[in-house]
Amino acid sequence: MTSPKMEGDWGEAFREHAMETSAGSGTAGVESKEDRGLVFVVRHGETPWSRSGRHTGRTDVPLDEEGRLQAVRVGKMLAGCHFDRVLSSPLARALETCKLAGFGETVQVDSDLMEWDYGEYEGRTTVSIRQQRPDWSLWRDGVPSGETPAEVGTRADRVIASLIATGAMTLVFAHGHLLRVLAARWIGLSPQHGARFALDAGALGVLGYERETPVIVRWNEAGKTP
User: Fold this and answer.
1) Which of 71, 73, 93 is nearest to 10 (CA)?
2) CA pair distance 201, 33, nearest whole angstrom
3) Chain-centre distance of CA 188, in angstroms?
4) What does residue 76 show for φ and ψ, rounded to 5 degrees?
5) 201 and 173 in contact (C-beta within 8 Å)?
């Protein structure tokens, strides 16, 4: 099976891809990929803090001009694709991305999709933090007065449980680090492995199945600048 074309209706191409793949790979007694549904994930568009590398957890920073353009491009990439569920973090940058992409009317807010709580490191860059803790790693150490990788993983697991139970075609708007943990947990890796899944502002990924095995179908795809 070749990868679906990335031009035009990106979301619809993946839906067709799911139908074709499930039709050719069904196993008796096992739900097909199409039956289980794909999960499209979108990192919110750029903000002034994300542009400068500041850790943005629970601070409600709005999108900047580029972030709003990225959100519109997401909508163009997903034009024509029907989703049974649309979920979003309650934070403004995720909800604004959802609305500008054209999915605001049906969105459901899920607090488990909020970004990593960075505690005392909120608003600081990695460079700044490492001036005090040279060997610090978010993925290994977590943050003082904030969340550990395991705690973020627990939230991601709750989201995944809901996605699997529903089995619906779902679109999720959330945040970089949370979605990287979600991707890692989707394929059975530890939250720390989220470090391996770079995800740019305004980029999309698709989580799905090959037969009964959870897989990452596509990752860190972004629309072209007009």
Assistant:
1) 73
2) 28
3) 16
4) -70, -40
5) no
> Which SS3 state, helix, strand or coil, does residue 18 take?
helix
Alpha-carbon distance of 204 to 201, in angstroms, equals: 9
Q: What is the DSSP letter of 71?
A: H
pLDDT digits 0-9 by tens, 45-69: 999 999 999 999 999 999 999 999 9
Amino acid of residue 154:
T
Answer whether 217's CB lies under 8 Å from 38's CB: yes
Q: Are the C-beta atoms of residues 88 and 94 closer than 8 Å to each other?
A: yes
Catalytic site includes residue 55: no
Which pLDDT belongs to residue 186? 98
Residue of 44, 55, 177, 193 marked active site:
44
Q: Does residue 44 have an active-site annotation?
A: yes
| Res. 5: pLDDT tops 70 | no
C-alpha distance from residue 56 to each of 4, 71, 90, 163 (Å):
34, 18, 14, 26
**10 Å Cβ neighbour count for 188?**
9
Residue 29 token pair: 């007694």
Per annotation, catalytic residue among 34, 46, 96, 115:
115
pLDDT in the model for residue 32? 47
- Residues 6+ positions from 129 with CB-CB distance below 8 Å: 121, 136
d(CA 58, CA 86) in angstroms, rounded, equals: 21
